[in-house]
Predict the 3D structure of the following.
Amino acid sequence: MIKIEKSTYIPDILMDKGRKDRERICDEYSSFPLDYTSRPNFSNRKLKKVDIDNKIYGDDTVKKQLIEDQNGKCCFCESKFLATSYGDVEHFRPKHAYKKGRKLIYPAYYWLAYDWNNLMFSCEKCNRTFKKNEFPLLDEATRVKNHTEAANLPNEKHVLINPITENPESFIKFNQHIPIAINDNERGKKSIKIYGLDRTELNQDRREYLNFMKILEPYLDIDENDKEEINKATEFFGMPKQDIIELIKTAKQYFKNAAKKESKFAAMIRSNFPYLSKN
Ligand SMILES: [Zn+2]
């Protein structure tokens, strides 16, 4: 996970339809707050649910801008998966309900459903299998419970690292391909668990990519313009001269880009090859 640099441009649909619909939702809630609010000895199923329009936040123009801002990567796992799946528009603060222990609490952050700074692009696995409705706080007393308290949001002590406002690399680094919380910090540990950053398939994907980079690393030391070095390499690798030169150039190109924000698993690459430039 790396910091997301969001565009200052906010998709039009969020500015017009989104703003209007936010007003409607807030009015709806304000007229009968209790009807929407979880309480003891009352089934969530009997509650009214805030009617959020997924056609607004899920509009193609919103998704397209998020994908562009995030360079086609999942906001959490940094996978580049667009060749095989569509991905989700994900809400950092959940829109309908949040989990407290094993229970779901309604409503959640309905007034942020169309808020540009609450939206990210994520892979389906991170969103649907792992994060889902999770939004734990370090101090439950700071929870903002409805839109009338929205001004207190900056004081809310959320556990999950927010890649829009924080630098995830201050909390999580990588030991080889495995994510670990820096100095065992609590928010890093919980974020790894809740976002599923150490799930088996993801660890395997990262390991494969890291191995590939390690195999290429020795080529970085060879100067493709030095005849003597190229002759030595040709002999050592048992390959035609031109192929070796191409391979060296390709390896250097991979390493030039691997730590940049545009590249997949950039945080892992930065941890393993700290000498690489991020720009
Ligand atoms: Zn993901």
